[in-house]
């Protein structure tokens, strides 16, 4: 079979390697900027992680809300937000896993001696 030619597969682009070696400069700079800003907020200003995540979530929700309203005012096609719907089974599964986690982590007063009522003179 003289016509058999083995073809090399297309070279794979390893995104982590590209970022590490600064081949994708915009993406690498964006990641560096976001990590530096997060570090500054967490370590220098003393914010909690949940505070930053909440602000980001509120900013995203507000942006989508304003974007949809501006498009409606300008008589443009509204964005398709069907991907943002939460299914009932997702909610049920999330509630079940949350309940299970809370039941597993429910604290017993006897486990924490520093919270003992005898400590406070009762």
UniProtKB/TrEMBL annotation:
Alphabetically ordered keywords of this record: Endoplasmic reticulum, Membrane, Transmembrane, Transmembrane helix
GO CC terms of this entry: cytoplasmic side of endoplasmic reticulum membrane; endoplasmic reticulum tubular network
Coiled-coil region list: none
Protein name: Reticulon-like protein
Keyword field contains Cell membrane: no
The organism's place on the tree of life at top rank: Eukaryota
Originating species: Arabis alpina (Alpine rock-cress)
Protein topology in the membrane: Multi-pass membrane protein
InterPro entries: Reticulon, Reticulon-like
GO process terms (BP): endoplasmic reticulum tubular network organization; response to bacterium
